[in-house]
Amino acid sequence: MVAALELYLDTDATRRVRALWRALEEEGVPTLASLREARHRPHVSLAAADRLSPDAVAAALGDEPVGRGLTLDVDFVGQFVGRVLWLGVTPSAELLARHRAVHDRLAAGGVEVWDHYRPGRWVPHCTVSLRVPNPLMAPAVRRCLEILPLRATVTAASVTDHARDIAHPLEP
Questions:
Q1: Would the pLDDT of 57 be above 90?
Q2: pTM attached to this predicted model
Q3: 38 versus 29: which is more confidently predicted?
Q4: DSSP the chain
Q5: Domain count, the chain
Q6: CATH code (residue 23)
């Protein structure tokens, strides 16, 4: 199971990513659109763990800005081991500084996160699919490239764990 501190994208960027998800689903590629009863929305995760207590995260962050107002430039497509397909966010100085500040507060508050989401290891991305069938990977990458470049503004943040039915807004 996965819990995450998610940054949500503006309406136009969300609409474009959802259109990509629909197109890929029609081509036989499972996306976040069909995962967990379609609860997912396009996002970039700043932190993830097996479990995250929304109250502990909120207490650790205090008044630290999480993501609202950040501009994200989505400029490339990538893959993680296991056939995970994603849209890559260019790691701007502002994004990396915000990420580090959030992680410093989480660590000081005793909130544990996975190592690969920590500063210096994190790859900012918007997940498209968690398991692309091998024969469909190349066409799926081409389809992703069709919507790029994509500029998005972060409009909200939330601690989210769909398996446990948690969606706790941090920034309205």
A1: yes
A2: 0.95
A3: 29
A4: --EEEEEEEPHHHHHHHHHHHHHHHHTT---GGGSTTTT--SEEEEEEES---HHHHHHHHTT---STT-EEEEEEEEEETTTEEEEEEP--HHHHHHHHHHHHHHHHTT----GGGSTTT---EEEEES---GGGHHHHHHHHHTT-SEEEEEEEEEEEEGGGTEEEEEE-
A5: 1
A6: 3.90.1140.10
